[in-house]
Design brief:
Length: 99
């Protein structure tokens, strides 16, 4: 049986998420006041090269070594040294592959 009122299932850390009524009301209230909202998920994986676009390492790029929740562990090679850093995924953008 399919519920036509459900657009998609919500997951957190690969498990079904429970959204409380007050959270759903807050989301509905926000969306009723802000029409141009886009929601997207960042699909990042170990081995991908990313640019850091926020925080103290903004402007740097690195390679994802591992992901843990909403944090990525990166290797950043800059100034002839290798730096390992933990960066929030909200500050990462996949680098485009030049053809």
């Amino acid at each position: 049986m399919k519920d036509h009122g459900i657009v998609c299932n919500v997951y957190w850390l690969r498990k079904p998420a429970i959204i409380r009524d007050e959270e759903m009301l807050a989301i509905q209230n926000f969306l009723s006041h802000h029409a141009d909202v886009s929601v997207f998920a960042k699909h990042l994986a170990p081995g991908e090269e990313v640019a850091i676009d926020g925080g103290p390492l903004s402007g740097q790029s690195g390679v994802i070594r591992s992901l843990q929740g909403r944090k990525a562990h990166l290797t950043i090679e800059s100034l002839g040294i290798t730096l390992q850093a933990e960066v929030g995924i909200q500050h990462l953008t996949k680098k485009k592959i030049a053809l």
